[in-house]
């Protein structure tokens, strides 16, 4: 019989081509470290239940603890002809420690084993994503220290709207969303609180294995609440991929802002992150930001693929679930890469203040301020709104903008000549930011 997970009842050897196609080993070998950690905890549970002697437990534990290092150094090569990493580890254990390895899988199934492995892997992933977000937030803070006082155009419908401070844009377009994403990872942690070990294949075990012992050994808060749920649910992975997707969306949104600002030369990209053209010698393209934006499409696809995997499945474990890992790994790897590139990018672009002020002037971004000056002087809002709108047209017909208004123009509008100082783009941005304590 080619595999330890087969008996006479299973019906002989697997077709080699089917085995080669169906094995999860190429993907789940990444679980080797958490798989061994999980097995060490299981050994502890077996020992506490009197199902292993202290000596047997020691032999198994030491072998399992040594395996990831041996595989990493090339000293051990896992068998390729196994169905998955769990079988490959058990097969290796047989060659390494002999007979006692036959006791490892007592009271356990690959169903609770793989569910545990994935939870351990996702827990590490959550910590890495949190750390990745923290670096980006730190770089964003440093960007604000350098450029937060620059008045930049804000846009509605991609038309110049109102002047905003650079710090308001950076926080609003990127940092706050990422902080919310980071907080949402707390929900993933909650869904990772229980260890599936002890759920067995679907209904637990008759053996007296205390699930709270194995759970504690792996830093879970408790064992399974229900064995059917424990082997079949991947809610934590779905929530994790949702957070990855939302991080991708926030990064993409910010990237589009930078791409559009750079297109108008309102921000300058560092050569270290810019792309060139193989034909046009003058180009400095926002490739990094376009790639970041493209990644968000992949995150959405991975989330849908993971949720789609559950479509039509009943409760408990089904082999369909095997494909969850490839999807989860891709989403987490992609997210960590995106956060790393975002951290690089934030040190590599700066706003061009003169160009921003020129865009604000050209776009008559001061119009709403002027309107509100009239309101403060007693004009009903709609009347002020109409007056300023007409003024915008008159100025433009004269080849001018609202910032070109003179003290006399203000007096003609019913304002004081001294109020001209308020028609200042940077001041406008600063006053508005102050309203939000920014
Ligand atoms: N390779 C499988 C997976 O990743 C492990 C669980 C197999 N369980 C089973 N009953 N065939 O999901």
Characterise the protein shown here:
This protein has 438 residues and is mainly α. It folds into three domains: 88 residues, Fumarase/aspartase (N-terminal domain) (Fumarase C, Chain B, domain 1); 247 residues, Fumarase/aspartase (Central domain) (Fumarase C, Chain A, domain 2, Up-down Bundle); 72 residues, Fumarase/aspartase (C-terminal domain) (Ribonucleotide Reductase Protein R1, domain 1, Orthogonal Bundle), CATH 1.10.40.30. Helices cover 61% and strands 4% of the residues. It contains 17 helices and four strands. The strands form two sheets. Strands 1-2 form a two-stranded antiparallel sheet. Strands 3-4 form a two-stranded antiparallel ribbon. Strand 1 and strand 2 form a beta hairpin. Helix 3 crosses helix 6, helix 4 crosses helix 5 and helix 6 runs antiparallel to helix 7. The longest helix has 38 residues. The chain is elongated.
């Amino acid at each position: 019989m080619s595999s330890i997970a087969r008996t006479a009842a299973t019906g002989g050897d697997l077709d080699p081509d089917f085995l080669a196609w169906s094995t999860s080993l190429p993907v789940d070998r990444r679980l080797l470290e958490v798989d061994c950690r999980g097995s060490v905890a299981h050994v502890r549970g077996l020992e506490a239940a009197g199902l292993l002697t202290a000596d047997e437990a020691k032999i198994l534990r030491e072998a399992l603890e040594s395996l990831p290092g041996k595989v990493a150094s090339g000293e051990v090569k896992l068998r390729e002809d196994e169905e998955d990493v769990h079988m490959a580890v058990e097969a290796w254990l047989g060659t390494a420690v002999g007979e006692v390895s036959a006791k490892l899988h007592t009271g356990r199934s690959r169903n609770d084993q793989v569910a545990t492995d994935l939870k351990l892997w996702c827990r590490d992933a959550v910590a890495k994503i949190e750390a990745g977000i923290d670096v980006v937030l730190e770089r964003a803070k440093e960007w604000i220290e350098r450029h937060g006082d620059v008045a930049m155009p804000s846009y509605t419908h991609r038309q110049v709207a109102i002047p905003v401070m650079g710090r308001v844009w950076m926080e609003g377009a990127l940092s706050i969303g990422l902080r919310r994403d980071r907080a949402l990872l707390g929900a993933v942690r909650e869904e990772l609180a229980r260890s599936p070990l002890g759920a067995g294949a679907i209904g637990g075990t008759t053996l007296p294995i205390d699930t709270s012992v194995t759970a504690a050994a792996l830093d879970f808060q408790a064992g399974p609440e229900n064995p059917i749920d424990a082997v079949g649910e991947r809610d934590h992975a779905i929530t994790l991929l949702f957070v990855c997707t939302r991080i991708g969306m926030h990064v993409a949104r910010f990237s589009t802002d930078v791409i559009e600002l750079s297109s108008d030369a309102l921000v300058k990209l560092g050569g270290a992150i810019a792309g060139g053209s193989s034909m046009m010698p003058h180009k400095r393209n926002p490739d990094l930001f376009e790639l970041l934006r493209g990644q968000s499409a992949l995150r959405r696809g991975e989330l849908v693929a993971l949720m789609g995997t559950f479509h039509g499945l009943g409760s408990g474990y089904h082999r369909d679930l095997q494909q969850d890992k490839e999807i989860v790994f891709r989403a987490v790897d992609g997210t960590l890469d995106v956060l790393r590139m975002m951290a690089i990018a934030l040190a590599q672009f700066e706003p061009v203040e003169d160009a921003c002020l020129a865009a604000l002037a050209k776009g008559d971004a001061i119009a709403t301020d002027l309107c509100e000056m009239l309101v403060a002087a007693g004009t009903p809002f709609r009347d002020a709104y109409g007056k300023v709108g007409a003024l915008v047209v008159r100025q433009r017909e004269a080849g001018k903008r609202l910032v070109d208004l003179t003290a006399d123009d203000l007096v003609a509008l019913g304002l004081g000549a001294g109020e001209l100082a308020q028609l200042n783009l940077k001041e406008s941005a600063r006053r508005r930011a102050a309203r939000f304590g920014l």
